[in-house]
Amino acid sequence: MKIQLLFPIVLLVGVNSQAYTLEEFINTQRMHTQNNLTLESAVVLAITSDPWLNASRYREDALTSESISALSLPDPKVSLMAANLPTDGFDINQEPMTQLSIGVSQKFPRGQTLELGSRKKIELAKQEPLLRQDRAARVRVIVTRLWLEVFKAQESIRLIEQDLALFEQLLDATKASYSSVVGRARQQDLVRAQLELTRIDDRLTVLQQEKDANLQRLTEWVGFLPNPILPNNLPEVSTLNPIIGNEANMALEVLYEKIHQHPSLKAVDQRINSMEIEVELARQKYKPEWGLNAQYGNRAEDSFGRERADMFSVGISFDLPIFTDNLQDKEVSAAVSRAEAIRTERQLLVRKLIAELDTAISQLNRLNERQKLYVQELLPQMAEQAEASLTAYNNDDGDFAEAVRARIAELNAKIEALEISVERFYVITQINYLLVGKADTNAQSVK
């Protein structure tokens, strides 16, 4: 059965030809998963209800709006003034120099400051979809780990409960043999059987505690789900890249190239682009900032009733960035250093992702070997040994302690095989996260 794990970041979802809001979709998913919480349902619920993704969309909208406002000139300034009023009476008609004036001034930012400021906001806005893609992929890894821990505890409990009936039968048979005159069971066999049952009960309690704890952690991502039941089998999982497992250098080079398409690295690239624009913005400070000033002055009639000519003034202003050693030069140097620091962060992130990929591939190879060994050899051998020991004991030709040890060893082997399968699933999930690219973030292959 193939299951497609989707990472929808949508506001409307079509179900049965009807349009559902995001809230209705989540509620519908929860109704369907109350009794059966599949991995697909858990991942979808976690991503569609992740507040971080909504916050990222708001940040993108804010940056987009700021990129538009950054292109606007500063607001002009208006001044109103009564100039040259006589202090002995404040009569505007007394002195010929008295006038009422209105002025307007407008600043023009340096060079291409407005355009560059807008471009910087656009580059930062482009970072948000990439961060959301990375967040969705990381949420899948987190939710998968928690879901797998619950699954492992659930299946371990099921395996133990399956063998619990056999141990109880052994205890009943031992009691009957011990109480019989001709029975060969000894008191230590009876005590041993009771002890093993007690240990199994304790083991079940511990596993139930682990299951409950991980379920509580899972609810942080998917919300409260009453009494969820996970499937009894893991979905089959495959890596996004089919060459995983091929240790040829050429294959590894292809994977390393895939790493460079990771959304987290692309997001860092957008930060680098914005910092390069920041450097250009700092260089604009070598250019003067211009200002335009215009003023109109109205003069009243003189004391003889004669009209006076109104006055109009216009001028420009600009600063002189000539003392640049401790200001502009240092600001440019600081912007360049910040850009280089982000490039260094990118290099460290590339190293980290490649190291994690190498480690995960190595783990996957070893887990594949162990899984093959358990399935093809160890589990059949343990089952054969347990059956032979029990048969020998029933035929009065074997030791009770050996029969119990063989059965417990088989149970432990089954649980270890389960742990290998769970860990293998998680490692493949990690590999898929590391290899996820722009084309892969909306869907990841789990079949």
UniProtKB/TrEMBL annotation:
Any Pfam family the entry gives: OEP
Superkingdom of the organism of origin: Bacteria
Family: Belongs to the outer membrane factor (OMF) (TC 1.B.17) family.
Designated name of the protein: TolC family protein
